[in-house]
Amino acid sequence: MPIKSRIRTIPDYPKEGVLFRDITTLLRDTTGFRITIHKLINRYSGKKIHQIAALEARGFIIGSPLAYALNAGFVPIRKQGKLPCAKISQDYESEYGQDRFELHADAIGRGERVLLVDDLLATGGTMEAAGALVRRAGGEILECAFVAELPALGGRERLEKLGLRVFSLVSFEDD
Questions:
Q1: How far apart are the first and last CA of the chain?
Q2: Which of 34, 41, 100, 149 could potentially form a cystine with 80 if both were Cys, beta carbons 3.0 to 4.6 Å apart?
Q3: What are the φ/ψ torsions at residue 157 (nearest 5 degrees)?
């Protein structure tokens, strides 16, 4: 059974008209979760990645085992107010509203190669903010990796216009 079929679709969540792609069904499926992580490991092995920077919250679930397997550090990009030390911040808009991401100011060294990771690419707003933080910290972004992508919302194009490379394991292009 492919990865895509293990992702649940919830209509009208969090608001009417939205088809929410819920990866929790993929995560609880031991085979599906292992396949997902192994596909990402295979893509990024040998790429000399210093840090995996993952977006709160589901990006952490994918980014942590990936960082371990690739012998890279793990850097959490958190929502406002969750990091205890000196930080930099970036506002963003998503399809659901506005918020702010924060990154510890010392989390990424100048010139470090960073892989950005999240579960889903929709409009690209959250990843755009994360990329801005990594670049302000001095990191070089190798790629933005996602489990799933919703092409109709234009996130890939938005990120590519910023010079970011995008990779996703599955696409919900026909939905």
A1: 19
A2: 100
A3: -60, -40
Pairing state of beta strands 140-149 and 51-55? unpaired
Out of 43, 95, 113, 158, which one is annotated catalytic? 95
119 vs 57, 86, 101, 136, CA distance in Å? 9, 27, 16, 23
The answer to whether 7 and 22 have CB atoms below 8 angstroms apart is: yes
Question: What DSSP assignment string belongs to 95-125?
Answer: TTEEEEEEEETTSS-TT-EEEEEEEEESSSH
Which strand (E) or helix (H) includes residue 29? Answer: none
Q: What span, in angstroms and rounded, lies between the C-alpha atoms of 140 and 34?
A: 28
Total Cβ atoms within 10 A of residue 116:
29
Structure token digits, residue 13: 């969540």
pTM as predicted: 0.95
pLDDT tens figures, 9-18: 999 998 898 8
58 is catalytic: yes
Q: Does the active-site annotation cover 95? A: yes
Digit-coded pLDDT (tens) for 105-133: 999 999 999 999 999 999 999 999 999 99
